[in-house]
Amino acid sequence: MSTTIDRGAPASGRTDSGRRGSHAMRWWVLVVLGTAQLMVTLDATVVNIALPAAQHDLGFSDGSRQWVITGYALAFGSLLLLGGRLGDLFGRRTTFVTGLVGFAGASVVGGAAGNFEVLVGARVAQGLFAALLAPAALSLLSVTFTKPSERPKAFGIFSALSGAGAAVGLLLGGMLTEWTSWRWVMYVNVIFAGVALLGALLLLAKPAVTERPRIDIPGTITASAALFAIVYGFAHVESTSWTDPVSLGPLAGGVVLLAVFVWLESRVAHPLLPLRLIRDRTRGGAFLAVFVLGMGMFSIFLFLTYYLEASIGYSPIEAGLAFLPMVAGIVASSTTAPSLLLPRVGPKVVITAGFLVSASGMALLARLTLDSTYVVHIMPGMILLGLGIGAVMTTAFQGATAGVHHEDTGVASALINTSQQVGGSISTALLTTIASSATADYLASHKPGAPTVAQAGVEGYTATLAWGAGIYVIGAVLSAFLIPNRALAPSEGEPVIAH
């Protein structure tokens, strides 16, 4: 599984051949890419806060409410690999701009929605264009910053925005819903998209496309269907059970389709996902680390928010503010670990240690009670979580794109997003079941009454956090065994048209 000299191998020997997306304005390009990434990650949580207000305004049922979230997840998760490959084939600048325009347009439609169907349709469209936008942003970052001296800092800043975006989304969602209207959680995307679009048109170099694009049609259909089935199956588990046929059928079908997809990719001349990308231990281990990171992060944002609001009575804005120490930890470690720790101790140590620090923070939060105070009991765990998540994320993002040639950066970036999305889907279904079981067990074994009901809720939330800590410990063990502790090779820049 070691790296060999092929298109998926380290590209450092070719970075000075004129294949470069970077230019004198590359740090401003980072601002553009970071703004777009912040918009996409914000959208993962900002809508959740506004859902009750939207439901009251549009009059849809509790059973229908999940489709506002699931519709986005299905489109985003199932089309990511295709979106990343389209960037490789037709130009990352083109797919990035298309994604921005489409995402902004879908946000306007969603904000103006007069009924449930239009809102869900707009969310599906957002997911579709996010599947173009997210891998394009990360792959543009990878082909723009190819110098080993600059790459860690650029990835650190980008990772800080990725990790902090979901937490900031909780705060922004609460503020917009309480101070304006739920519709502004959609309209606000236009502001982010407008800034990023202007910067993209002015700053992004146009790629010099030298090869005729070829799309792996069988692989695209198989991969999209497999990911759709898996995300749908786990989403359905949340509202039913693990034995429900409507959940098990898509999950089983998705696994079979994934096996077919791998078989196809090993035989076609121009695969959607070149298997060489994941055979390398550094990249394969990094993709797995992102998968585990996504599993744990969803338990943090979902169930810790439930605890803050339902158990100890925080308002949406207060709950969003409560996550700010974690945001600070993510920013601090994302911007310092790549330059201070990574060159000294290597990626294996940084990712393994990051998982263990996050697990310790999660373990502290798993001890919360109805009487816990913020400064003493909640904030320390938040800080540790942020420090660990930032270190893992920035290193894994670099590792997953290490040594990738420009022809493959889009699909490599898409696989990062896919790993995180599927990890989140699995953990949300799994941890929802765990929370429900823990709550029911507590209610069954204690005297009925309001205090018992309140404590039962806490038991459910803290059970998921304890499992989240265990998931991160497993991530640390896997990273320690799989990821080689060698320097991360840079990506190759892409051919661009000179200004």
Write a structural description:
- By secondary structure, the protein is mainly alpha-helical.
- It has 2 domains: 12-215 and 272-482, Up-down Bundle (Growth Hormone, Chain: A); 216-271.
- The chain is 77% helix and 0% strand.
- The chain contains 16 helices and no strands.
- Helix 10 (281-311) runs parallel beside helix 15.
- The chain is globular, with a radius of gyration of 22 Å.
- Residues 1-22 have low confidence and may be disordered.
List its salient traits:
mainly alpha; Growth Hormone, Chain: A; 2 domains; 499 residues; globular
SSE arrangement, N to C: HHHHHHHHHHHHHHHH
Major beta sheet, specifics?
A: none
What is the fold-level CATH name, i.e. the topology of the largest domain?
Growth Hormone, Chain: A
Helical residue percent?
over 70%
Q: What is the first-to-last residue Cα distance?
A: 40 Å
**C-alpha geometry:** globular
What is the CATH first-level class name of the largest domain? Answer: Mainly Alpha
pLDDT averaged over residues:
86
Q: Structural class of the helices, strands and pairings? A: mainly alpha
Please mark out the parts with pLDDT under 50 across 5 or more consecutive residues, or reply none: 1-22
Strand and helix map with partners:
Elements: H1 26-58, H2 62-90, H3 92-111, H4 116-144, H5 151-179, H6 184-203, H7 217-239, H8 245-265, H9 276-279, H10 281-311, H11 316-322, H12 324-345, H13 347-365, H14 374-400, H15 409-444, H16 450-482
Helix pairs in contact: 1-2, 1-4, 1-5, 1-6, 2-3, 2-4, 2-7, 2-15, 3-4, 3-6, 4-15, 5-11, 5-12, 5-14, 7-8, 7-15, 10-14, 10-15, 10-16, 12-13, 12-14, 13-14, 13-16, 15-16
